[in-house]
Amino acid sequence: MANKKPRPGRTLTAFFLALVVAYGLVALGGKWKPELGLDLQGGTRITLIASGHPSTENLDEARGIIDQRVNGSGVTEASVTRQGSNLIVVEIPGKSRQDLVDTVARQAQMRFRLVACQDTCASSAAGAGAAGGATAGTGATGGGTGIAGQRAGLGFDHKKPAATKKAQTPAASPTPVSGDTAAPSDAASPTTSGEPDAKGDISVDDAVKFMGNPPADQVAKFDAFTCPTGSTAPVVVDNPSAPLITCDAQGHKYLLSPAIIEGTELSGASAQVPQNSVQWAVSLSFHSAGRSAFADATDAVHQNGGLFAIVLDGQVISAATAEGRINGDAQITGNFTQDEAQSLATSLKYGSLPIAFDKNGTSSEVIGPTLAGNQLNAGLLAGGLGILLVMVYCLFYYRGLGIVVISSLVFAAGWTYAMVLLLSKTAGFTLTLPGIAGLIIAVGITADSFIIFFERIRDEMREGRSMRVAVETGWVRAKRTRIGASFVSLFSAAILYIFATGVVKGFGFALGLSTVIDLAVLFWFTKPLVSWFARFHFFNGGGKLSGLSPETLGIDAPVAAGGKA
Amino acid sequence: MGKFSRLGHELSTGHKSYDFIGRRPFWYSLSGGIVLAALLVVIFNGFNFGVEFTGGTEIQVSGLSSTDAGQGTADTLREKVAATGIEAAAQPEVATAGSNGVTITVKELTESEQAKVTDVIESVVTIDNPKDQLTVSSIGASWGQQVARRALIGVGVFLVIVMLFIGMYFREWKMSIAALCALIHDVLITMGIYSLSGFSVTPAAVTGLLAILGFSLYDTVVVFDKVRENTHDLRASKTTYAKAANLAVNQTLVRSINTGIVALIPIGAILAVSMIQLGASTLKDLALAQFVGMAVGVFSSVWVAPRILVHLKSNESEVVLAERRAKAKAKANVDPYANVPSFAEDMPLGEGAELGVPTDAEQGPARARGPVVRDSRAAGRPQPSREPRSKRTK
């Protein structure tokens, strides 16, 4: 390889600066101790009581989904267990995670329906534009279409107990202007939408017919229906193949067509701030079938001037118009805070629960650590002792080069600590005892990269090269070996992370993190440092303490003189 | 340390060489025997699965006075419950709950055992009204079949990907197979020793075992990298595959020993401290699985994987050819003067006599003593393309 002249000084400086920047970010985060896991620090226990008598399979399925919700990013290491015949217990690290109660307990059954009547059963046109809580927008084309303008006061705090209700002004939720309460076409009697297809949702055409022409019995029921006061959700049975009468958080009542799109059609959900907006929104993406159904629905709504509603767990969370056929993602806007939007997105992403939970039975309490306090100390003591022994061994065996090992280990530790702090701030990474042990174990693998490198240098010097040359030629081979081997480690870490749950997931993450850090330290710190050291007579002169003397190399000739060029 | 380094030098030049390749029947039966024993232990001794896998009993104590509900009580309870000698309660999980409660999780208890545990609890904390303050409920496994299935799928995917990666990286699928054999060897032995230890299988232990997958393959890859370097041009190095591979293992031996020591020191420290200072603990489980696995992993990368690789390769025509070449060379070397030609009439004279004449190299590769076509590292200067006269046959 026609290498550039190595400039160890530059790389080292850049590496130092990067570490300083990392710690600068940590300082911005303002937390200097990593978040500890359930076993070491305790956390919050949320007990959920299933309503009704769900089967064990359903409970187990719900357990799995909740596990994904709380461990979504995989580094939180929460524990979710089924208890008895109707309980699910969620334990999450951190003392004050009551905010997760919503995310965990939400059944997250989302359906798209068309709005036949809003508040009063007037012609559907009256409702258009009245309460546009949601806007559908394609990411690319129609992204900004009236999102800001249509934000209505469809807050999302209705799930919380009334006590925590925020002072929220239902900004733009005008009652319908048209005062006529006469239902336009009650006489028309076609019970169009009765036939559900296999999936339980009906075709868009049927729903449109229903929207334009709601059957009289439904209208009668609708008129008789009153929304509960406050922001509590109405108690309704959300049957996807039947029309639904329900309310939103502001107490507007709706008569809705049978579901046209089911939550199962969602392929993803994420919380984001859309372009041209300052409000948090939840963006939904569909599978192909859902995508075409959504496109048809928006088209129909656009042409007929109606509204479609997004119903979550029996409550309308938004109702919106469409400004054309939308072949893309949907967005739910509303007065979401960042936390609320993320909570909803997380609930939706992993699918709906097969069971509902009794809201009054849900309790949360603070729990203590499951491991005795002495375990952490013992673990840290053992780890410290082990690392100390490793350092002593390296100094003994590699003499002067041992300095390189020790400083590299110190740097790797520094990086690891910085990353752990940053990740526990941003991704909820928590350190459990196995995680700490994993990081300590990684010391062995990290040290191995130096051992491979140094043995290469020694081999090259045995063949009569000077240290300066040997460092560069040895590096070429050591690098290759190292990269190949690291990939194997990374694969195993990635697989642990993707397929495992809970503790193992966190361990895989820690393993992958330490492998990447190890590679970075090797390339940008160890190698330049050795290159730099090779310029000094202490190392390249073959002195006894350099670790590269003829005696330690086992050769009889003096080492090839390097000297300062 | 000088001695060890000198050993390193001698190993690297091949002056001193241990045989890590040969004596297949002996080493195969040794390794195979150990693996079989481990397998039998796993089958007949089984594992002592923890509460995370089996589900169990949870006893909630509530309504405690604030002095009773602290972390100290939880720690005392943990020790006392473990000391009851009930097998199901050997590794209890005890945590404070709220400001006035404690939760104790153990494996499934019988009525009498439950009474015993309750007695212990009541001896530690004051309970006025056991009926209201003690709630016993059964809990399901947080690591049920679903989790196990996912983990197994994960391991399967991992193995396939890594086998493909190794196969592509070394361009040699036999290396994948040898590495896989070494991996199975490591995992089974680790499982066997774990089963013998009688430690309960916790998620931490599974984590340790899964991490072994990565480490074992990692270690094997490092050794194979050297093997490949040594064997990529058998013709030039004039040696057999087995010898080149054995040299590679010897050359990486110092590194393997060093890595083994450096990797095992911290884990050994954790294992020792947790066994001496702590009772049953997740730390101990993880450390045991890791310690055994890493030790076996280093061993197998030296003793098992290269031997299997050489065995697998021994039938390849290239390898057989190299073997034959080396044999012929050895024969030729018995009497170095046997081939000195006597003068013959048609023997070319002078150095320039045969310039431009096709060399032996172009006449086919299968000659017992090959032509001098080797990587001369001579910067493109013209090199003699014929053998020296003394080596030439007629």
Entry summary:
With 565 residues, chain A is an alpha+beta fold.
What does this structure look like?
The complex is a heterodimer of chains A (565) and B (394). Chain A has helices at 8-29, 38-41, 56-70, 100-105, 124-127, 147-150, 204-212, 216-224, 288-304, 338-349, 373-398, 401-426, 433-462, 467-499, 502-533, 537-540, 550-553, and strands spanning 43-49, 79-83, 87-93, 110-118, 135-136, 244-247, 253-256, 261-262, 266-272, 280-286, 307-312, 315-320, 330-336, 363-367. Chain A has 565 residues and is α+β, with helices and mostly antiparallel strands. Chain A has three domains: 8-35 and 371-553, Multidrug efflux transporter AcrB transmembrane domain (Multidrug efflux transporter AcrB transmembrane fold, Up-down Bundle); 43-104, Alpha-Beta Plaits; 108-352, Gyrase A, domain 2 (2-Layer Sandwich). In chain A, the strands form three sheets. In chain A, strands 4, 6, 7, 8, 11 and 12 form a six-stranded antiparallel beta sheet that branches. A four-stranded antiparallel beta sheet of chain A has the order 2-3-1-14. A four-stranded antiparallel beta sheet of chain A has the order 5-13-10-9. In chain A, β9 (266-272) and β10 form a beta hairpin. In chain A, α1 (8-29) runs antiparallel to α15. The two termini of chain A are 22 Å apart. With 394 residues, chain B is of the alpha+beta class. Chain B folds into two domains: 10-49 and 144-313, Multidrug efflux transporter AcrB transmembrane fold, CATH 1.20.1640.10; 56-139, Alpha-Beta Plaits (2-Layer Sandwich). Chain B is 60% helix and 7% strand. Chain B has 15 helices and six strands. Chain B has a four-stranded antiparallel beta sheet. The longest helix of chain B is centred in the middle third of the chain and has 29 residues, at 203-231. Chain B starts with a helix and ends in a 60-residue tail after the last helix. At the A-B interface, α3, β2, β14, α11 and α13 of A face α1, α4, β3, β5 and α7 of B.
